[in-house]
Amino acid sequence: MGPYRLETIIGSGGMGTVYRGIDERTGDKAAIKILPSNMSHNEGLRERFQREIETLLQLKHPNIVRLFGFGEEDGELFYAMELVEGRSLAEVIVKTPIKHWRTVVKYSLSIAAGLRQAHDMGIVHRDIKPANVLITRDNKVKILDFGIARLFGATGVTMAGGIVGTADYMAPEQAFGEGVTPKADLYSLGALMYAMLARQPPFRGNTVTEILDKLRYNEPIPIDRLVEALPNDLSQLVTQLLEKNPEHRVPTARALCRRLEALLELPEDTDFDLNLADHSTRAPSAPGDDYQLKDSDEVAPTLDPQSRKLAEAPTMQLSGEEEPSDLKPKNKSSATEASATIVTQRGIQDEPKTRFTTVAEQRQRTSEEESRRVKSTAWINYIQIGGLLVALGVVVAVMLIAPQKPGAEQIYDSIETSANEGNLAEVSEQMDDFLERFPEDPRSEYVAQLKEELNLRRQENRYRLAAAIGRGNQGLHPVEQIYLDAMKTNEFDPIAARDKLQGLILAFGPAQTQQGDIARCLVLAERRLKQLNASLTSQSKQQTASIRERLEYAERIAADDPQKAERIYRGVIQLLQDEPWGLNLANDAQMRLNNLGSR
């Protein structure tokens, strides 16, 4: 293919086959990706292939696989990229599971850094998954295959009715045909973090339909339930990235990088081996897609059949596409020739059959064409520059007139006002904004407490809803199940409910020793126990006063109406025989009854 001699197949997928190749001019190694021959007449796929090259040409980042050049050989389109030695993240998860949460954060930070540059350039990857992340021998991270990314504002090149992505790691809005933004990549990265920690993606299923159904209607099991003793900030970050509503996720890859960097600054004594909880499920699978890494220059690693069978979520294929057949490597002896384009008309005999363009040549050609165009249309450019200056003036004027982004004082005043009025839910986003932008502000601790209080209220509402619809024990931790049972018992037996809550707190508490939903559930249990104790104490005081008054009345009428006095004494004894708080009153009534009989 062009100047490259193809040696072995590294991997294959819906967009083509990847070979290990050698540049016969220089001896440099490369990974060569080729569009399948049986799809070369499909203009939609050719356009997608062209889009892939255009996208890769714009990206230059240490965490993104580098493009060397592109070309065409006998009508077959191909491009050359760096050959990375190491393994895919899917193989790492399956064969050598990650032992430390800090490693997960470091890998995630590298991926987020690569996505940050792509997002800043208006490029969304759309298929972040373990098979598309490469871990080099020196433990560096490389993102692979921006081939299904699409430039903002560009015409879509997916075929009618088709979606691009991998179901296990796909954002809900992408899966269901809604607008895709950079936050779709952040969801996929959250799912990837989930898989690195729990060794399984957020949702599993035997079919794409089953996975998509769970993606639409279910919430993933909280990561701190599957993996013991994770830092609370890490489990909360994963949960936020997996929010179904994009507006509730981390706003940008840049903000995500800051959050991940903050996690790496946690004290070293928080390091530990990752231990899956007893109810964790099967591990994720090894890759079966596109570009697999080389363990050495000589031998291409292959996955065992079981690992391939468990690979990862089904890859969503375009409507009308077929899986590519394996291609045989070709040895070409003809000389190479640079060309200005990779798209040719097949069957024209006087066209060169071999074309290859390096990235440098393409950039130089683009620069020369741009220079000629500028010289021939200089007067148009002057008009455009004038228009831009006018537009810039308008923008500056609007910026001066428009209100500035609210500062710490303004945001805090809004939060405090809503807190005093009991409307914390209305300022949830303002609290997140304050904590992210002003973490050093001395009031941030109070804002964090308000945010946690809001989380407690929301969790309490979820419990009430679960109990109301009769699904209280489905998918809940035992601590949450006991809490719900106590709340139901409280409706007819407050004392029994109090005893259950006391036992729950003694067995699993205090709340400070737990994390996530379990910690919040124990906080709610402690609050409810305090309320029940206060209520029961108040009730017992009122009943004691009322019964004491009744005993005194019986004492006054005992001489004139001993039968009525006897009934009152016996009623009090029967009423209080099983009440610990009424033991003294019951003994008093019994003594008076005995005295009445001796008269």
Automatic annotation (TrEMBL):
GO molecular function: ATP binding; protein serine/threonine kinase activity
Domain Protein kinase, first and last residues per copy: 4-264
Cited PROSITE patterns: PROTEIN_KINASE_ATP, PROTEIN_KINASE_DOM, PROTEIN_KINASE_ST
Signal peptide: none
SMART domains cross-referenced by the UniProt entry: S_TKc
Record key words, sorted: ATP-binding, Kinase, Membrane, Nucleotide-binding, Transferase, Transmembrane, Transmembrane helix
Segments for region (Disordered): 278-372
Record-listed E.C. numbers: 2.7.11.1
Transmembrane segments: 379-402
InterPro entries in the record: Kinase-like_dom_sf, Prot_kinase_dom, Protein_kinase_ATP_BS, Ser/Thr_kinase_AS
Binding site for ATP: 33
One Pfam entry name: Pkinase
Compositionally biased residues, Basic and acidic residues: 362-372
Polar residues bias: start-end ranges: 332-347
Gene3D superfamilies registered for this protein in UniProt: Phosphorylase Kinase, domain 1 (3.30.200.20), Transferase(Phosphotransferase) domain 1 (1.10.510.10)
CDD domains linked: STKc_PknB_like
SUPFAM superfamilies: Protein kinase-like (PK-like)
Protein name: Serine/threonine-protein kinase PknD
Organism of provenance: Bremerella alba
